[in-house]
Request: fold
Amino acid sequence: MEDLAGEGGRGRSKRQRLAGELRRLRDLAGISGRDLAHRIGISQSKVSRIESGSVVPSLPEVTAWSEAVEAPTPTREFLADLTQAAFTEMHTWRAALQRQTHLQDEIREQEDQAQVVRVYQPTIVPGLLQTAEYARRVFSLFDPPYSEGDLPMVVAARLQRQLALYDESRTFEFLITEAALRLRPGAPRLLLAQLDRVASLSTLENVRIGLIPQDGEALVCPSHGFTLYESDGSAGDSFVEVEVTHMRLTVRDADDMATYHRQWSVLTGMAIYDDAARQFLAKLSADIRAMAR
Reply:
Protein backbone atom coordinates (compact mmCIF):
# COMPACT_ATOMS: atom_id res chain seq x y z
CA MET A 1 0.00 0.00 0.00
CA GLU A 2 2.92 2.35 0.68
CA ASP A 3 4.03 1.95 -2.91
CA LEU A 4 0.66 3.19 -4.11
CA ALA A 5 0.86 6.28 -1.95
CA GLY A 6 4.43 7.10 -2.96
CA GLU A 7 6.55 7.17 -6.10
CA GLY A 8 5.18 3.91 -7.46
CA GLY A 9 1.66 5.33 -7.53
CA ARG A 10 2.46 8.52 -9.42
CA GLY A 11 1.31 8.71 -13.01
CA ARG A 12 -1.24 5.92 -12.50
CA SER A 13 -4.97 6.56 -12.41
CA LYS A 14 -6.88 5.84 -9.24
CA ARG A 15 -8.68 3.09 -11.12
CA GLN A 16 -5.36 1.43 -11.99
CA ARG A 17 -4.11 1.85 -8.45
CA LEU A 18 -7.24 0.22 -7.08
CA ALA A 19 -6.99 -2.64 -9.56
CA GLY A 20 -3.33 -3.29 -8.70
CA GLU A 21 -3.95 -3.26 -4.96
CA LEU A 22 -6.93 -5.64 -5.19
CA ARG A 23 -4.93 -8.09 -7.28
CA ARG A 24 -1.94 -7.84 -4.92
CA LEU A 25 -4.13 -8.62 -1.93
CA ARG A 26 -5.71 -11.62 -3.67
CA ASP A 27 -2.28 -12.97 -4.60
CA LEU A 28 -1.00 -12.50 -1.04
CA ALA A 29 -4.03 -14.37 0.30
CA GLY A 30 -3.37 -17.26 -2.12
CA ILE A 31 -6.94 -17.21 -3.46
CA SER A 32 -7.71 -17.95 -7.10
CA GLY A 33 -9.84 -15.61 -9.17
CA ARG A 34 -12.51 -18.30 -9.43
CA ASP A 35 -12.59 -18.84 -5.66
CA LEU A 36 -12.71 -15.12 -4.94
CA ALA A 37 -15.55 -14.63 -7.42
CA HIS A 38 -17.55 -17.36 -5.64
CA ARG A 39 -16.90 -15.83 -2.23
CA ILE A 40 -18.07 -12.31 -3.14
CA GLY A 41 -20.85 -13.27 -5.54
CA ILE A 42 -19.57 -12.00 -8.90
CA SER A 43 -18.35 -13.74 -12.05
CA GLN A 44 -14.74 -14.78 -12.57
CA SER A 45 -14.65 -12.66 -15.73
CA LYS A 46 -15.62 -9.60 -13.67
CA VAL A 47 -12.79 -10.32 -11.23
CA SER A 48 -10.44 -10.31 -14.23
CA ARG A 49 -11.88 -7.03 -15.55
CA ILE A 50 -11.57 -5.42 -12.11
CA GLU A 51 -7.95 -6.52 -11.79
CA SER A 52 -7.12 -5.27 -15.28
CA GLY A 53 -8.62 -1.89 -14.45
CA SER A 54 -11.28 -2.02 -17.17
CA VAL A 55 -14.09 -2.10 -14.59
CA VAL A 56 -14.37 -0.12 -11.35
CA PRO A 57 -15.96 -2.30 -8.64
CA SER A 58 -18.71 -0.94 -6.43
CA LEU A 59 -17.95 -0.13 -2.81
CA PRO A 60 -19.90 -3.21 -1.55
CA GLU A 61 -17.82 -5.39 -3.92
CA VAL A 62 -14.57 -3.88 -2.62
CA THR A 63 -15.75 -4.38 0.97
CA ALA A 64 -16.54 -8.04 0.24
CA TRP A 65 -13.17 -8.44 -1.53
CA SER A 66 -11.39 -7.01 1.53
CA GLU A 67 -13.20 -9.43 3.80
CA ALA A 68 -12.46 -12.40 1.55
CA VAL A 69 -8.70 -11.72 1.58
CA GLU A 70 -8.78 -10.79 5.31
CA ALA A 71 -7.23 -7.36 4.69
CA PRO A 72 -6.31 -5.38 7.84
CA THR A 73 -8.53 -2.45 8.85
CA PRO A 74 -6.18 0.33 7.57
CA THR A 75 -6.03 -1.36 4.17
CA ARG A 76 -9.82 -1.69 4.04
CA GLU A 77 -10.21 2.01 4.79
CA PHE A 78 -7.64 2.91 2.13
CA LEU A 79 -9.44 0.75 -0.45
CA ALA A 80 -12.78 2.35 0.40
CA ASP A 81 -11.33 5.84 -0.10
CA LEU A 82 -9.63 4.82 -3.34
CA THR A 83 -12.84 3.27 -4.66
CA GLN A 84 -14.81 6.45 -4.03
CA ALA A 85 -12.11 8.51 -5.75
CA ALA A 86 -11.94 6.14 -8.76
CA PHE A 87 -15.51 6.94 -9.78
CA THR A 88 -14.52 10.47 -10.81
CA GLU A 89 -10.99 11.01 -12.10
CA MET A 90 -9.41 14.25 -13.27
CA HIS A 91 -6.68 14.32 -15.94
CA THR A 92 -5.17 17.65 -16.95
CA TRP A 93 -4.23 18.00 -20.61
CA ARG A 94 -0.81 19.36 -19.63
CA ALA A 95 0.08 16.36 -17.43
CA ALA A 96 -1.25 13.86 -19.97
CA LEU A 97 0.77 15.37 -22.82
CA GLN A 98 3.94 15.33 -20.73
CA ARG A 99 3.74 11.52 -20.81
CA GLN A 100 2.93 11.12 -24.51
CA THR A 101 2.86 13.07 -27.77
CA HIS A 102 -0.93 12.93 -28.15
CA LEU A 103 -4.01 11.25 -26.68
CA GLN A 104 -5.64 9.90 -29.85
CA ASP A 105 -4.48 6.29 -29.33
CA GLU A 106 -5.73 6.34 -25.74
CA ILE A 107 -9.12 7.69 -26.85
CA ARG A 108 -9.30 5.09 -29.63
CA GLU A 109 -8.81 2.31 -27.05
CA GLN A 110 -11.74 3.70 -25.05
CA GLU A 111 -13.90 3.84 -28.17
CA ASP A 112 -12.90 0.30 -29.21
CA GLN A 113 -14.12 -1.10 -25.88
CA ALA A 114 -17.54 0.55 -26.18
CA GLN A 115 -20.49 -0.83 -28.10
CA VAL A 116 -22.22 2.56 -28.21
CA VAL A 117 -20.46 5.95 -28.27
CA ARG A 118 -22.56 9.10 -27.83
CA VAL A 119 -20.88 12.49 -28.34
CA TYR A 120 -22.28 15.94 -27.57
CA GLN A 121 -20.32 18.95 -28.83
CA PRO A 122 -21.42 22.58 -28.37
CA THR A 123 -18.29 24.29 -29.77
CA ILE A 124 -16.60 22.28 -32.55
CA VAL A 125 -17.36 19.39 -34.91
CA PRO A 126 -16.60 16.13 -33.02
CA GLY A 127 -13.21 14.60 -33.74
CA LEU A 128 -14.66 11.41 -35.23
CA LEU A 129 -16.36 13.51 -37.94
CA GLN A 130 -13.56 15.97 -38.72
CA THR A 131 -11.81 16.29 -42.07
CA ALA A 132 -8.01 16.19 -42.02
CA GLU A 133 -7.61 19.94 -42.57
CA TYR A 134 -10.26 20.87 -39.99
CA ALA A 135 -8.51 18.57 -37.47
CA ARG A 136 -5.12 20.13 -38.25
CA ARG A 137 -6.47 23.63 -37.64
CA VAL A 138 -8.12 22.57 -34.37
CA PHE A 139 -4.94 20.92 -33.11
CA SER A 140 -2.89 23.97 -34.07
CA LEU A 141 -5.01 26.01 -31.61
CA PHE A 142 -4.69 23.53 -28.76
CA ASP A 143 -3.33 24.72 -25.40
CA PRO A 144 -0.79 23.42 -24.46
CA PRO A 145 0.34 23.70 -28.10
CA TYR A 146 1.56 20.87 -30.29
CA SER A 147 4.82 21.39 -32.14
CA GLU A 148 4.68 21.77 -35.92
CA GLY A 149 6.54 18.47 -36.20
CA ASP A 150 3.95 16.62 -34.12
CA LEU A 151 0.86 17.94 -35.92
CA PRO A 152 0.93 15.45 -38.87
CA MET A 153 1.19 12.53 -36.42
CA VAL A 154 -1.71 13.79 -34.30
CA VAL A 155 -3.94 14.38 -37.34
CA ALA A 156 -3.14 10.92 -38.74
CA ALA A 157 -4.01 9.33 -35.38
CA ARG A 158 -7.35 11.16 -35.31
CA LEU A 159 -8.18 9.96 -38.83
CA GLN A 160 -7.23 6.41 -37.79
CA ARG A 161 -9.86 6.60 -35.05
CA GLN A 162 -12.52 7.35 -37.66
CA LEU A 163 -12.22 3.87 -39.19
CA ALA A 164 -14.43 2.65 -36.33
CA LEU A 165 -17.38 4.48 -37.89
CA TYR A 166 -17.48 1.86 -40.65
CA ASP A 167 -17.84 -1.05 -38.20
CA GLU A 168 -21.56 -1.83 -38.52
CA SER A 169 -21.57 -3.89 -35.32
CA ARG A 170 -21.13 -0.69 -33.30
CA THR A 171 -23.26 2.43 -32.89
CA PHE A 172 -22.15 6.07 -32.92
CA GLU A 173 -24.45 8.97 -32.10
CA PHE A 174 -23.61 12.66 -32.28
CA LEU A 175 -25.34 15.84 -31.16
CA ILE A 176 -23.84 19.03 -32.57
CA THR A 177 -25.01 22.59 -32.02
CA GLU A 178 -25.39 25.06 -34.87
CA ALA A 179 -22.72 27.22 -33.21
CA ALA A 180 -20.25 24.33 -33.51
CA LEU A 181 -21.15 23.83 -37.17
CA ARG A 182 -20.58 27.51 -37.90
CA LEU A 183 -17.15 27.63 -36.24
CA ARG A 184 -14.66 28.35 -39.03
CA PRO A 185 -11.03 27.65 -38.09
CA GLY A 186 -9.88 28.52 -41.62
CA ALA A 187 -11.04 29.62 -45.07
CA PRO A 188 -14.72 29.13 -46.05
CA ARG A 189 -13.79 26.18 -48.27
CA LEU A 190 -12.50 24.36 -45.18
CA LEU A 191 -15.87 24.62 -43.45
CA LEU A 192 -17.79 23.75 -46.62
CA ALA A 193 -15.77 20.53 -46.92
CA GLN A 194 -16.41 19.80 -43.25
CA LEU A 195 -20.17 20.23 -43.57
CA ASP A 196 -20.14 17.92 -46.62
CA ARG A 197 -18.28 15.37 -44.52
CA VAL A 198 -20.88 15.50 -41.74
CA ALA A 199 -23.70 15.11 -44.28
CA SER A 200 -22.00 12.12 -45.89
CA LEU A 201 -21.35 10.30 -42.62
CA SER A 202 -24.96 10.87 -41.54
CA THR A 203 -26.02 8.34 -44.20
CA LEU A 204 -24.20 5.43 -42.50
CA GLU A 205 -26.64 2.94 -40.94
CA ASN A 206 -24.78 2.78 -37.61
CA VAL A 207 -24.15 6.55 -37.34
CA ARG A 208 -26.84 8.93 -36.12
CA ILE A 209 -26.14 12.65 -36.28
CA GLY A 210 -28.46 15.16 -34.64
CA LEU A 211 -28.11 18.91 -35.21
CA ILE A 212 -29.39 21.47 -32.71
CA PRO A 213 -30.49 24.73 -34.43
CA GLN A 214 -29.92 28.04 -32.67
CA ASP A 215 -33.51 29.17 -33.21
CA GLY A 216 -34.99 26.21 -31.37
CA GLU A 217 -36.24 26.25 -27.77
CA ALA A 218 -33.32 25.58 -25.41
CA LEU A 219 -34.54 22.96 -22.92
CA VAL A 220 -31.00 22.31 -21.68
CA CYS A 221 -27.73 23.89 -22.75
CA PRO A 222 -24.56 22.22 -21.40
CA SER A 223 -21.60 24.53 -21.94
CA HIS A 224 -19.08 21.72 -22.30
CA GLY A 225 -18.83 18.64 -24.46
CA PHE A 226 -19.23 15.14 -23.10
CA THR A 227 -19.04 11.57 -24.39
CA LEU A 228 -21.02 8.56 -23.15
CA TYR A 229 -19.21 5.24 -23.54
CA GLU A 230 -21.57 2.29 -23.18
CA SER A 231 -20.79 -1.41 -23.23
CA ASP A 232 -22.89 -4.55 -23.51
CA GLY A 233 -21.07 -5.84 -20.42
CA SER A 234 -21.62 -4.93 -16.79
CA ALA A 235 -22.51 -1.40 -15.76
CA GLY A 236 -18.91 -0.90 -14.64
CA ASP A 237 -17.81 -0.97 -18.29
CA SER A 238 -19.72 2.26 -19.02
CA PHE A 239 -18.57 5.77 -18.18
CA VAL A 240 -18.77 9.42 -19.19
CA GLU A 241 -15.92 11.70 -20.20
CA VAL A 242 -16.36 15.45 -19.81
CA GLU A 243 -14.01 17.90 -21.53
CA VAL A 244 -13.30 21.28 -19.94
CA THR A 245 -10.64 23.84 -20.81
CA HIS A 246 -7.73 22.45 -18.80
CA MET A 247 -8.72 18.84 -18.15
CA ARG A 248 -11.00 15.92 -18.82
CA LEU A 249 -13.10 14.24 -16.16
CA THR A 250 -13.87 10.51 -16.19
CA VAL A 251 -17.17 9.84 -14.42
CA ARG A 252 -18.26 6.36 -13.33
CA ASP A 253 -20.57 7.11 -10.42
CA ALA A 254 -24.02 5.83 -11.36
CA ASP A 255 -25.90 8.90 -10.12
CA ASP A 256 -23.55 11.32 -11.88
CA MET A 257 -23.72 9.29 -15.10
CA ALA A 258 -27.51 9.39 -14.89
CA THR A 259 -27.33 13.20 -15.02
CA TYR A 260 -25.56 13.06 -18.37
CA HIS A 261 -27.97 10.45 -19.70
CA ARG A 262 -30.87 12.73 -18.80
CA GLN A 263 -29.17 15.65 -20.52
CA TRP A 264 -28.57 13.50 -23.61
CA SER A 265 -32.25 12.55 -23.69
CA VAL A 266 -33.33 16.20 -23.52
CA LEU A 267 -30.79 17.25 -26.16
CA THR A 268 -32.06 14.62 -28.61
CA GLY A 269 -35.50 16.21 -28.33
CA MET A 270 -34.01 19.53 -29.47
CA ALA A 271 -32.20 18.01 -32.48
CA ILE A 272 -33.12 17.38 -36.11
CA TYR A 273 -32.01 14.24 -37.94
CA ASP A 274 -31.70 12.52 -41.33
CA ASP A 275 -33.08 14.48 -44.32
CA ALA A 276 -33.98 17.47 -42.15
CA ALA A 277 -30.43 17.59 -40.82
CA ARG A 278 -28.92 17.29 -44.30
CA GLN A 279 -31.18 20.10 -45.57
CA PHE A 280 -30.03 22.20 -42.62
CA LEU A 281 -26.39 21.53 -43.54
CA ALA A 282 -27.11 22.51 -47.15
CA LYS A 283 -28.62 25.81 -45.96
CA LEU A 284 -25.58 26.49 -43.76
CA SER A 285 -23.32 25.81 -46.74
CA ALA A 286 -25.34 28.23 -48.88
CA ASP A 287 -25.02 30.90 -46.17
CA ILE A 288 -21.25 30.43 -46.02
CA ARG A 289 -20.89 30.66 -49.81
CA ALA A 290 -22.97 33.84 -49.83
CA MET A 291 -20.84 35.48 -47.12
CA ALA A 292 -17.63 34.49 -48.92
CA ARG A 293 -18.55 36.39 -52.11
Observations:
- The chain has two domains: 2-86, 90-292.
- The first strand starts at residue 88 and ends at 92.
- Residues 1-11 have pLDDT under 50 and may be disordered.
- The first helix runs from residue 2 to 5.
